[in-house]
Amino acid sequence: MQRTRFGDMACSIARTLDVIGESWSPLILRNVLVGIGRFDQLQQSLGISRKVLTERLKWLVDNDVLERRRYSERPPRYEYALTAKGTELCDLLMVMVRWGDRWTAGEAGPPVLYRHHACGEIGHVELHCSVCDRPMDVTCIDILPGPGAAVTA
Amino acid sequence: MQRTRFGDMACSIARTLDVIGESWSPLILRNVLVGIGRFDQLQQSLGISRKVLTERLKWLVDNDVLERRRYSERPPRYEYALTAKGTELCDLLMVMVRWGDRWTAGEAGPPVLYRHHACGEIGHVELHCSVCDRPMDVTCIDILPGPGAAVTA
DNA sequence: CGAAAGGGTTCCTTGAAGAGACGTACCTCT
DNA sequence: AGAGGTACGTCTCTTCAAGGAACCCTTTCG
Hints:
- Two copies of one chain form a homodimer.
- Chain A is about 40% helix and about 20% strand.
- Chain A contains five helices and six strands, in the order H-H-H-H-E-E-H-E-E-E-E.
- In chain A, the strands form two sheets. In chain A, strands 1-2 form a two-stranded antiparallel ribbon. The first copy, chain A, has a two-stranded antiparallel sheet with strand order 3-4.
- In chain A, strand 3 and strand 4 (about 120-125) form a beta hairpin.
- Chain A is globular, with a radius of gyration of 18 Å.
- At the A-B interface, helix 1, helix 2, helix 5, strand 3 and strand 4 of A face helix 1, helix 2, helix 5, strand 3 and strand 4 of B.
- Chains A, B: Pfam families: HxlR (PF01638).
- Chains A, B: GO terms for molecular function: DNA binding.
- Chains A, B: Keywords: DNA-binding, Transcription, Transcription regulation.
């Protein structure tokens, strides 16, 4: 559908979307995270077309979000795993889960729960300020131009 | 492109993607957040096709992420604004910004900065556990099935 | 040997994205 | 009164990616 490329916009949201903005990518990431990392497993569990899966995996590998590694020499077999860059992307997944749980889960309740190693409890993510550690959301910040801002008229 | 619908998967990520998974939606949200809420403004600042913008806005309004409100009676004029549901989605934007800043900003540095009202400093978001307030990411949790999990064989 | 598994590739069809012309209601200027 | 401008879309046409399914290659198993 001749998708507009976002990669060179002066916006970190656009650049992030350029990497994982395509709808299947977060789901692929989620599955790789929970250990579903082989081609056929991914294809079947997501119900994605094999062609599109091939394209997405290649894109994610080229963008250093996933790595493709051989887990068997003979016969040659491969699986996909998260890189450091990809692991940090999972923050995004956790925030998506949080929002989805709050606004779309309905009667049944959340489909998955997180148990935090540090406290052993079932919790969810909250956004805090990296400086003062207090809660931070879009209603309690000012948005200022940064060094990488585009010079706009 | 006969996109697969995610809305009825038993997965909060999929359901969140169903609402804002299309690539333009987060950018529309970002613009509405910073006060760019009128049709022509959005169309010009994003470079999106008018047809697609119409479709996206309708989808976001129907899903209660944005509201369309009249700010002038005669001539009739409308603008789009965030609902509570949409405002909480901005958490996602902040996490995208954080990842984009870290991994894609390059030489120039981040295009925007956040000043946190609570401390007055420039900071970024970090994910903390809702129970113990300590940092939480995907490497320090167990993922358990919740009440809304699909019964899979 | 034939069949199956893993990991893709190739081909065709359909339908959404993009571009841009057009429409409508209103206001302002001369 | 007419010309021009603005805000907010709708319509039409073309192009290109998603979806679906068949096919391919290598290796192992019965």
